[in-house]
Structure formats: structure tokens, C-alpha cells
Write a structure and sequence with these properties.
Length: about 100
């Protein structure tokens, strides 16, 4: 017997959420934005960022949209990630932010 909901359930992922403080001196400017989007694009998961826990959420795979976030140094950057490789994506993005995008 085929269960139509079984396929849907296998493709539905509970979003993971986390946050990290931007430590680099100029915040989320062009270079860190590109690094963040390159990292995000290397994963299949849907990845979004925000400056508040309740959004508004921005597609982290779009460099232009990420640059529009204009997060300053010291801002809390929130992540919401859902997909088959969400845990790995979250770990990689948090490490990137904690490392100051290689600028600190």
C-alpha cells in the first residue's frame, strides 16, 4: 500500500535554529557576505539568516540579500536551516561567524 504522506514526511525537515555574535570589526559587509553565501550554497539545506529571532528572514544563498541585512559588529546573527544536511550546514556557518569570517 502506498502512503502519499510517506514521501512528504521524508522530505519534510524540522528547521534547526542557532545564533552567533558578529565579531569582525565591520560586521556583515561585502566580503563576509560572499563567504557566508558561498558556504551556504555548498549545502542542499534551505538556509536563512535574520537579525532577530522572529525575522524577517533572508535567503542566505543570495549575496545581494545577505548584504542588505547590514549587520554591524556585535549584532546577533540568527540562523534557520532545514534540509538533509542542516546539522553540517549549521556547524559550518556558526564556525565561519565565530572565526570572524577569517578577518579577526
Amino acid at each position: 500500500m502506498h502512503d502519499a504522506n510517506a514521501k512528504l514526511a521524508s522530505e519534510t525537515f524540522v528547521p534547526l535554529t542557532a545564533s552567533a555574535v558578529l565579531v569582525n570589526a565591520v560586521g556583515l559587509h561585502a566580503r563576509p557576505s560572499v563567504k557566508l553565501t558561498q558556504c551556504a550554497k555548498s549545502f542542499a539545506a534551505a538556509i536563512e539568516i535574520a537579525l532577530a529571532a522572529d525575522g524577517p528572514w533572508t535567503n542566505a544563498k543570495s549575496p545581494v540579500k545577505v548584504m542588505r541585512v547590514k549587520a554591524p559588529q556585535g549584532a546577533m546573527l540568527y540562523f534557520r536551516i532545514a534540509g538533509p544536511d542542516a546539522r553540517a550546514a549549521l556547524a559550518a556557518l556558526l564556525a565561519l561567524v565565530h572565526d570572524g569570517f577569517g578577518e579577526v
